[in-house]
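We were asked to recover a plausible sequence for a given structure. The inputs and outputs are reproduced exactly as logged, with field labels preserved.

PROBLEM: sequence recovery
POSITIONS: 324
GIVEN STRUCTURE:
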């Protein structure tokens, strides 16, 4: 209102009920302003500087806090304290704990540099090679966790892990996360690592428990075979018990997630500055994909392995049970 009053005083606006006064032409090179409306329009086009957004309440910051060599050395003191407790109670695990800590540092450091190299190139061949190395290591570990050797365990574990882990990882990255492309290393490799690790544990547990259940029920299984039961029918109770034992850890983790502990995926995202609600959604996806991968890995290795305990004549193989 004050700007309009000044304009009327200068004769640039017509008074109420009157005629506008004659205006002198503006000098060349000078921009003429009529009043508050034009001045407001001009100012609205100018982008004003705004201060950066402050961190949200609770201390959320963008990006993780950097960890240097000194901080890693401080973290190593925690292991030293554990070594002191092991030595005090004479557990005899000093070398094992020290070797495990050394391997942890070496393996994770190498993996970190390798992933940086793969992320920078973002080529399908290198991603497939890294996934193949994961599957190979997981297959070898799962096959050698069984104390007593089982014929055909290595091949069965390879097929079970390749199918369950490959299908689950593809479904998550392509259909749920919708990475572009679906094999984008920043999404594919971390998710594949979690899937392969959990599926490996489920497959190894299912194989070992299946062997133990068949050995404990050997007389019962032979009685069923004598009554003209097929190997699948004779071994069905042992197979169900083995699969239940393999899936119990996954089910327990799903029942207690968020109550007893905050899982690694959610913790890592929150430390990196992500919104806790979005981190919780990602963790839900992770829990569901781990449940699917472990279930299929256990079921597949059980279906592929139970026939190895029988001969072609439908007789129980005592040598596959670790018995003479």
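RECOVERED SEQUENCE:
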């Amino acid at each position: 209102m004050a700007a309009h009053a000044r304009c009327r005083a200068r004769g640039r606006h017509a008074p109420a009920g009157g005629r506008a006064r004659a205006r002198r032409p503006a000098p060349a090179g000078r921009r003429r302003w009529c009043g508050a409306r034009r001045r407001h329009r001009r100012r609205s086009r100018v982008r004003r500087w705004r201060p950066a957004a402050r961190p949200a309440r609770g201390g959320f910051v963008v990006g993780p806090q950097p960890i240097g060599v000194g901080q890693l050395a401080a973290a190593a003191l925690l292991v030293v304290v554990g070594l002191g407790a092991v030595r005090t109670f004479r557990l005899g695990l000093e070398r094992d704990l020290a070797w495990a800590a050394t391997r942890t540092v070496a393996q994770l450091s190498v993996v970190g540099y390798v992933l940086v190299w793969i992320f920078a190139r973002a080529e399908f061949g290198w991603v497939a090679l890294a996934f193949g190395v994961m599957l190979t290591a997981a297959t070898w570990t799962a096959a050698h966790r069984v104390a007593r050797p089982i014929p055909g365990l290595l091949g069965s574990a390879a097929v079970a892990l390749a199918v369950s882990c490959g299908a689950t990882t593809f479904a998550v990255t392509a259909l749920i996360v919708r990475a572009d492309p679906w094999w984008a290393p920043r999404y594919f490799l971390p998710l594949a690592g979690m899937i392969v690790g959990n599926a490996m544990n489920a497959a190894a547990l299912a194989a070992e428990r299946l062997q133990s259940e068949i050995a404990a029920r050997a007389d019962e299984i032979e009685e069923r075979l004598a009554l003209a039961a097929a190997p699948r029918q004779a071994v069905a109770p042992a197979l169900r018990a083995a699969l239940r034992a393999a899936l119990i850890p996954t089910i327990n983790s799903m029942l207690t997630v968020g109550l007893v502990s905050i899982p690694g995926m959610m913790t890592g995202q929150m430390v990196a500055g992500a919104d806790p609600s979005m981190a919780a959604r990602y963790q839900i996806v992770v829990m569901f994909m781990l449940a699917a991968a472990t279930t299929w890995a256990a079921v597949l290795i059980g279906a592929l392995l139970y026939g190895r305990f029988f001969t072609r004549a439908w007789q129980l193989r005592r040598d596959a049970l670790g018995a003479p």
